[in-house]
Amino acid sequence: MTEMKAVGLYHYLPISDPESLIDVTLPKPKAEGHDLLVKVKAISVNPVDVKVRAPKDKTEQTPKILGWDVAGVVEEVGEAVTLFQPGDEVYYAGSINRQGCYSEYHLVEESIVAKKPASLSFAEAAALPLTTITAWEALFDRLGVSKSKEDNKGKSILIINAAGGVGSIATQLANYFGLTVIGTASRPETEAWAKQHGTHIVINHHEAFPPQLEKEGISAVDYILCLHSTDKHWDNMAQAIAPQGHIASIVETEEPHDLGLLKSKSVSFAWEFMFTRALYQTEDRIEQHRLLDDVAKLVDQGIIKTTINKQLQGINAETLREAHQIVESNKMIGKLVVIE
């Protein structure tokens, strides 16, 4: 049996514990059905990796492999695969209910994979999939933003945490499709990053939104995308949103909130979870293949920029523990990538 190296866990521990992520050897998977077997070249570490790994009273009998952001090369295809062939360079975010990508090889269903942007290195491409899918689905599927620049004339979006991984993509997409982008940031370096990636106006998320917006001549915003602390910003969002506006969030709540605050304005609220399509095997999951393909073209045209901001080398336990510590610090701007 052919084997591969991977990084996994048996116990859910603080990242300072050497047993939190360990080097393991596993059987090399085989591609069957609609699956691709991908040789992993680069991965990105996301907040979801940290959340899944976080301490909890649970143990695994076989190593659990984390990681949901990949750029690599197709090594083998299942018998039902039609979209790819061995040798294709691809990028994707995988599925939360399957083994992750902290490994030499990774299995993934073809419908959520796309060919990577030709103009990017594997490291640059690995920074994109999870945040790109999240930003695209939030904007166009959850908030209902039009893909017509003409339709978006005079409309605005407030992106809370504009300098984070998802924010860095959402600002670029919203800007490209013609929205006025207001981003939140609280440090000089995050404000600079947000402006560099397409934010027109920056406000501070530690202060009330409406007074800051009014200073910029904005009475209310048409869309809000919350990428940090739905709990903290709920009342602020309810005040800042325009009548018949739309709010979406990717951050789960820890306390109940009053939906009634949105009623008089007829405002909609939606959750975005980029794993939904793969997790529930929805009939439209091919949309993730399509949107990643669309974004790859925008990247190769120079319209969308990769959001990589830090790179580590070595897909091993020591390096990935370091990566988790960096992500856990909540000070990361853009994306952190680990190359083989």
Automatic annotation (TrEMBL):
Keywords, alphabetical: Metal-binding, NADP, Oxidoreductase, Zinc
This protein's record includes keyword Transmembrane: no
One of the Pfam families matching this protein, by short name: ADH_N
Residues in Enoyl reductase (ER) domain copies: 16-338
Classification via SMART domains: PKS_ER
TM regions (residue ranges): none
GO molecular-function terms, A-Z: oxidoreductase activity; zinc ion binding
Family statement drawn from the similarity comment of this UniProt entry: Belongs to the zinc-containing alcohol dehydrogenase family. Quinone oxidoreductase subfamily.
Name this protein carries in UniProt: Zinc-type alcohol dehydrogenase-like protein
Organism, scientific name: Sporolactobacillus shoreae
Lineage, opening ranks: Bacteria, Bacillati, Bacillota, Bacilli, Bacillales
